[in-house]
Design brief:
The complex is a heterodimer of chains A (111) and B (113). Chain A is mostly beta strands and 111 residues long. In chain A, strands 2, 4, 5, 6, 9, 10 and 11 form a 7-stranded mixed beta sheet that branches. The mean pLDDT of chain A is 94. Chain B has 113 residues and is an all-beta fold. Chain B is globular and about 40 Å long. The relative contact order of chain B is 0.34. Classes of the chains: A mainly beta (111), B mainly beta (113).
Chain lengths: 111, 113
Amino acid sequence: KAGVTQTPRYLIKTRGQQVTLSCSPISGHRSVSWYQQTPGQGLQFLFEYFSETQRNKGNFPGRFSGRQFSNSRSEMNVSTLELGDSALYLCASKLNEETQYFGPGTRLLVL
Amino acid sequence: DAKTTQPTSMDCAEGRAANLPCNHSTISGNEYVYWYRQIHSQGPQYIIHGLKNNETNEMASLIITEDRKSSTLILPHATLRDTAVYYCIVRVQDGGSQGNLIFGKGTKLSVKP
């Protein structure tokens, strides 16, 4: 069974731009969560989607948003990029309420 | 905030067992202990989880104390590829806000030849 996939793997943007990242969960998994990892703050939870609905949300500004499609694929969007948004963005999926499995991440650099 | 405490770093000789401790003194009765690891710049990799009983799989063993206030992850024969940051996390298995993973700083395990 294929794992969680994320695209693109690397991305360079400039301040003020917006970006959309994509995540395809493991087949059959309906929950997708997003995390941000930076050297200063570590791994932090952004939000979780389940059956196309946002179920949980971390403590991030409204510039960070997401959505989930009927096939469980998810996208996250960051608008008006800031230098501090440079990070590794990780997506994780899970079946029911058990173990989350992570993708390889998208590394975003904001210049 | 993370509900676990782990040593910042540990060293282990290749081929020896690596024992990674974790304190979770405020763990609730319905919280599981999960272990993940992250090899440099990759996504975290699930290792093992447990509630009360000791658990073993092809990667590792998890020993949970009887009072559940601490646990130890054991890699029986560490290899250089086991060099990573290991995260111990407690979470409930439900769809609520507590069901998500709250990562601490983890333990940086360095396996040396």
